[in-house]
């Protein structure tokens, strides 16, 4: 048995902890935040995800798929909202049965943390600040001061802004590039109307507007979380709408069905933060005792709805690599990176390409003639 540290108790880290425990490994999971199950989510950062078969396959292997799906809403196609004219439903599969599942990232994380907590040791409010990849020495900042500890194997599952990756770069073993889009995202909320969904909950709603767009995914409380993907600068930028009347006029002209659906439009728009969107690439993903996984290794833009699905699939591939090396942790990370890098680069490129598709091409006549879109 190895002493394994997983840094980051988000989606990839908490799922990885469950897989490692299932293999009988002794695991400590370190998370920067205090226990998120005890707190309220940050305003404008609720993020609901489209969970697809790729991610469900990973959850199934630790018997969590049914529990997660109980909190999810199936979306069997996308509903296009033009500036003028009829709504246009485009099914995701020829038989109209295949679906992607809308789920809150927070709720998904909570299910995974519950599962991880029953099998591994979790230390919340531990922010990794230093790491020596050769010795496995780690330093964490905690409310009670600095904690110095170590592990035989360390996984960096600490997301797009990974401190573990930062330490590999600092030690001169990894190189990274961060490509930010000149676009950001902002959330709005469509509350229930008379206790019911205000839009069809069986679809992922898209307002394609050429150079920008809005999407909306349903939530179990019958609200929708909308996300605006708009430029950070130039025409149509978030900052260009600086007064309540400018916000109201712009939505009335460009998203005319939205103001009646979002009674808190001006407050949401003015108070919710603008998030960054970018692609992280780095190489190698591993050095000494350390291996990166999930967004820490390969964060992508969200337009294919595959970041979390891909992070979950990483865990499955890593587990298969462990099997193929007969449980040898010294060999597993290299095999993992060799098996996985090409696929993650491909999804990074597809995710960028899908932004053009969603904000522009979905409203073209070819889709109205019945082209089907497959999501896996
Ligand atoms: P994270 O979920 O970011 O988890 C990292 C964890 O590490 C966090 O808990 C963090 O607190 C912790 N941490 C950070 N630093 C430290 C530190 N120094 N020490 C200890 N802990 C630390 N994906 C999809 O599959 N489908 C979608 O539809 C989708 N939509 C998205 C929409 C938006 C607007 C965005 C922004 C993302 C979307 N994604 C989607 C992507 C998805 O959210 C990420 O790919 C996924 O969360 C990655 O999981 P992760 O565990 O690698 O990283």
List keywords for this structure.
FAD/NAD-bd_sf, 31% helix, six-stranded mixed beta sheet, 11 helices, EC 1.14.13.9, disordered C terminus, binds flavin-adenine dinucleotide, FAD-bd, single chain, alpha/beta, seven-stranded mixed beta sheet, flavoprotein, 376 residues, FAD/NAD(P)-binding domain
Written description of the protein model:
- This protein is of the alpha/beta class and 376 residues long.
- It is 31% helix and 28% strand.
- The chain has helices at 11-22, 53-60, 65-69, 105-117, 163-170, 244-254, 265-271, 295-298, 307-324, 332-359, 365-368; strands at 3-7, 26-30, 48-51, 73-75, 77-80, 88-91, 100-104, 121-123, 127-132, 137-142, 145-150, 153-156, 175-190, 203-208, 213-218, 224-231, 275-283, 286-287, 290-292.
- The chain has a 7-stranded mixed β-sheet.
- A hairpin with a 5-residue loop joins strand 15 and strand 16 (224-231).
- Helix 1 packs parallel to helix 4, helix 2 (53-60) crosses helix 9 and helix 9 runs antiparallel to helix 10.
- The structure holds flavin-adenine dinucleotide.
- The site of flavin-adenine dinucleotide (FAD) has 34 residues, from helix 1, strand 3, strand 9, helix 8 and helix 9.
Write the layout of secondary structure elements.
Blueprint: E1 3-7, H1 11-22, E2 26-30, E3 48-51, H2 53-60, H3 65-69, E4 73-75, E5 77-80, E6 88-91, E7 100-104, H4 105-117, E8 121-123, E9 127-132, E10 137-142, E11 145-150, E12 153-156, H5 163-170, E13 175-190, E14 203-208, E15 213-218, E16 224-231, H6 244-254, H7 265-271, E17 275-283, E18 286-287, E19 290-292, H8 295-298, H9 307-324, H10 332-359, H11 365-368
Parallel strand pairs: 1-2, 1-12, 2-8, 5-14, 12-19
Antiparallel strand pairs: 3-7, 4-7, 5-6, 9-10, 10-11, 13-16, 13-17, 14-15, 15-16, 18-19
Helix pairs in contact: 1-4, 1-9, 2-9, 9-10
């Amino acid at each position: 048995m190895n002493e394994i540290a997983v840094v980051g108790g988000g989606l990839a880290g908490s799922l990885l902890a469950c897989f490692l425990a299932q293999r009988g490994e002794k695991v400590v999971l370190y998370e920067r935040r205090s226990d998120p199950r005890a707190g309220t989510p940050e305003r404008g950062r609720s993020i609901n995800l489209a969970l697809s078969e790729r991610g469900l396959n990973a959850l199934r292997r630790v018997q969590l798929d049914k529990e997660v799906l109980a909190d999810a809403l199936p979306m069997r196609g996308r509903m296009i909202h033009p500036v003028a004219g009829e709504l246009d439903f485009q099914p995701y599969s020829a038989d109209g049965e295949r679906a992607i599942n809308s789920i809150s990232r927070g709720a998904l994380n909570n299910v995974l943390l519950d599962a991880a907590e029953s099998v591994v040791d979790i230390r919340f409010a531990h922010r990794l600040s230093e790491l020596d990849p050769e010795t496995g020495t780690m330093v964490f900042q905690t409310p009670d001061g600095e904690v110095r500890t170590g592990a035989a194997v360390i996984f960096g599952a600490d997301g797009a802004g990974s401190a573990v990756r930062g330490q590999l770069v600092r030690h001169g073993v990894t190189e990274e590039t961060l490509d930010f889009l000149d676009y950001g995202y902002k959330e709005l909320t469509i509350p229930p109307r008379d206790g019911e969904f205000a839009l069809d909950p069986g679809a992922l709603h898209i307002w394609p507007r050429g150079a920008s767009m809005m999407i909306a995914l349903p939530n179990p409380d019958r609200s929708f979380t909308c996300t605006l993907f708009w430029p950070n600068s130039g025409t149509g930028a978030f900052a260009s709408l600086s007064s309540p009347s400018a916000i109201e006029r712009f939505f009335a002209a460009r998203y005319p069905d939205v103001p009646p659906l979002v009674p808190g439009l001006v407050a949401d728009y003015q108070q919710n933060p603008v998030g960054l969107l970018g692609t992280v690439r780095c190489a190698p993903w591993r050095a000494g005792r350390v291996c990166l996984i999930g967004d820490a290794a390969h964060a992508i833009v969200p337009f294919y709805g595959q970041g979390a699905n891909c992070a979950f699939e990483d865990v499955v591939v890593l587990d298969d690599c462990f099997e193929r090396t007969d449980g040898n942790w010294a060999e597993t990370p290299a095999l993992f990176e060799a098996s996985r890098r090409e696929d993650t680069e491909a999804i990074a490129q597809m995710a960028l390409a899908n932004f053009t598709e969603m904000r522009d091409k979905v409203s073209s006549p070819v889709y109205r003639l019945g082209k089907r879109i497959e999501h896996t």
